[in-house]
Design brief:
8 strands; TIM Barrel; binds phosphoenolpyruvate; alpha/beta; eight-stranded parallel β-barrel
């Protein structure tokens, strides 16, 4: 059985004070919830507050990106050793907003993925098609290409902690959600590609999250799909009550 993972992607929201306030309200609401794994990925500037707040709670703290170099003259970047030393355990890699606005490519996703895995972080690798690709019938091809390139030159052993998030770009922040059936179909494509690259046994254990306008009112139908192993939640994760409702789908 794959344990479901509910991950919050706060994007560029919340100050450290707002982070402390979130955890003050959120942690009592999810205390003792052991059915699923819970991860919150705030902006870097909130990581310290988040880690201090979440200590001993079972809620893990992740971030939204990582550079592939350990250190050096890379102004504005953050490395895996820096994150590990803070107590960060998860990292989102290849989010569509990074691909769309910040020049992220399949190749840099691969570099970040390798680095995260080497450092012992759990990467949540995002893949997903834009609307034009879906409408042109290219969804499967896009997902296969993104996976093959992201997983390039990574062994199954090294990839043990890998998590993939299927995030159809047309569903992110739009209020449009893939139906559970559409999401499950895409997850099956990703799983079959993972089987090609890493082998069938790896693929059976790989957790594939769905992301794209997950809300309290659609979480349970999405999570009911056996192919869907959790959710990556943007907007609805900013409010403790709404993220709790998703966690407790
Ligand atoms: C996301 O940012 O990964 C996301 C899925 O956002 P939203 O839930 O707001 O669509």
């Amino acid at each position: 059985m794959r344990k479901k993972l509910l991950a919050a992607n706060w994007k560029m929201h919340k100050t450290p004070e707002e982070t402390l306030a979130f955890f003050r309200e959120f942690l009592p609401l999810v205390a003792g919830h052991s059915r699923d794994e819970i991860v919150v990925c705030p902006p870097y500037t909130d990581v310290h507050a988040a880690i201090q707040s979440a200590e001993g709670s079972g809620v893990a703290i992740g971030v939204q990106n990582v550079h592939w170099k350990a250190d050096g003259a890379y102004t504005g970047e953050i490395s895996a050793p820096m994150l590990v030393s803070l107590g960060v355990t998860h990292v989102i890699v290849g989010h569509s907003e990074r691909r769309q606005y910040f020049g992220e490519t399949d190749d840099t996703v691969n570099l970040r993925l390798k680095t995260a895995l080497e450092a012992g972080l759990t990467p949540i690798c995002c893949v997903g098609e834009v609307l034009e690709e879906r409408e042109a019938g290219l969804c499967d091809d896009v997902l296969r290409r993104q996976c093959v390139r992201a997983f390039h030159a990574i062994s199954a052993k090294k990839a043990a902690k890998l998590v993939v998030a299927y995030e159809p770009v047309w569903a992110i922040g739009t209020g449009k959600t893939a139906t559970p059936e559409v999401a499950a179909e895409a997850h099956a494509v990703i799983r079959s590609e993972a089987a090609e690259v890493f082998g069938p046994e790896f693929a059976v254990n790989l957790r594939i999250l769905y992301g794209g306008s997950v809300k309290p009112d659609n979480a349970s139908s999405l999570m009911a799909q056996p192919e869907i192993d959790g959710a990556l939640v943007g907007g609805a994760s900013l409010d403790p009550k709404s993220f709790t409702a998703i966690v407790k789908y």
